[in-house]
Amino acid sequence: MADSQLIDFRQKEEAFVMRKLHDRQWQKLLHFCYNIVGEEAEAQDIVQDSFMAIWKIRDRWETIESLDNYLFMVCRNNALALLKKQKEIRRLAEDIAIHLQNRIQHSALEHIYASETNQHIQGQIQTFPAKMKEVFLLSREEELSQKEIAAKLAISENTVKKQINNVLKVLKKKL
């Protein structure tokens, strides 16, 4: 018998053994895995992956005492690995949800704080003398330069600069 015929014979024999093993154990393994993972589709994937694992080591079948027991062990290990992975994914999802919730709360608090601070600043600005208030509002709200403010109000740039600094000092103290 030629080498190619021997190889062909062995491959057919391995495929026959695999089909018999599959026919004999598929339903039992599916039920076994379903009881571990609780999902039919996942149980089917585990069983299929386990058969693939057995097929990949077919050159070592002679060293395995019981292919049936080995197949159950592979299924069990794959099912437990899936549960561990799912647990890790759930933990990560929970961590992400907590992080997002904290960011949302932090953002909301920042918005509230900014709004309250702005209201407080606006209230303080209303207490300033009219010219000081006008200089500051032209600087901050209309974004005019000191030179433009001085020209518009017919005052010196130094006066504009001093009034803006005075407003900022008062606001710093009040905040």
UniProtKB/TrEMBL annotation:
Keywords associated with the record: Sigma factor, Transcription, Transcription regulation
A family per Pfam: Sigma70_r2
Positions of the RNA polymerase sigma-70 region domain: 28-87
Single GO molecular function: sigma factor activity
Record GO biological process: DNA-templated transcription initiation
Domain RNA polymerase sigma factor 70 region 4 type: 124-169
Entry's family note: Belongs to the sigma-70 factor family. ECF subfamily.
UniProt name for this protein: RNA polymerase sigma-70 factor
Organism: Sphingobacterium spiritivorum ATCC 33861
